[in-house]
Amino acid sequence: MNQPRPPILNISCYLFVAIEAPQVLRDLLQSRAQALGLKGTVLIAEEGINLFLAGAAADVRAWVDALREDPRFAALAPKESWSDTVPFRKLLVKVKPEIIRMNHPTIRPDQAPRAPALPAATLKRWLDQGHDDDGRPVVTLDTRNAFEVDVGAFDDAIDWRITKFSEFPDAVRAHRAELAGKTIVSYCTGGIRCEKAALFLAQQDLDGPVYQLEGGILKYFEEVGGAHYHGDCFVFDERRAVDPALAPSSTEGADDALGLAAALAPKAA
């Protein structure tokens, strides 16, 4: 017998798009979210929007539908998961210099074509067969922080043990030989870090194709499950982590990682 769906809808979503007046948008989105009783985090910058929200399904979807009425955000495609309770304690809507900080001014996804995005099903097929469709070896490159990787990751993924995403460019420069001549698939939780990472990697003349995993781990779980992945996916809310069925897992390792993330929060934005 099917179990009833938990009552709380959690969404995560980002979009790189030029925003000329982020403070004006911030005030509008905060008032809408407050009116609907939503909790979570919405980050806005001139380069785009990044959000994690939770609440009753009808209210969350009403907020997203209102945002999509703005042509700049028509392409928003939130990833969904469900929980028994709201995993956020408050609502935070904030303007920042970057929606994910890389500290690399030449990487502006809102001003450039997207890096090639690889669907989850294609990555699974390539990992099943051990190479891409041209016979080239495939490597998965984790762009997340080390404490997130420790909760779960793709099998044999490259992990440079970075502590914040702004360390990623220097890590690439230090490990270029590890990537040269291979098909690189960068990945992260929901796609935002691996999208910036793929653009940076494409500038490095690595003699091989570079992709971002479309929608990150969460979209991979949604579309193909946990194939070629071990553990859970760390998330920055009170669920701690979700398993390949996108259900809260709250593993001991995820609890430890959340504590570390909280300790690093002031310097790891």
TrEMBL record:
This is Sulfurtransferase. PROSITE patterns: RHODANESE_3. Residues 134-229 form the Rhodanese domain. InterPro entries: Rhodanese-like_dom, Rhodanese-like_dom_sf, TrhO, TRHO_N. PANTHER family: RHODANESE-LIKE DOMAIN-CONTAINING PROTEIN 7-RELATED, THIOSULFATE SULFURTRANSFERASE/RHODANESE-LIKE DOMAIN-CONTAINING PROTEIN 2. Pfam families: Rhodanese, UPF0176_N.
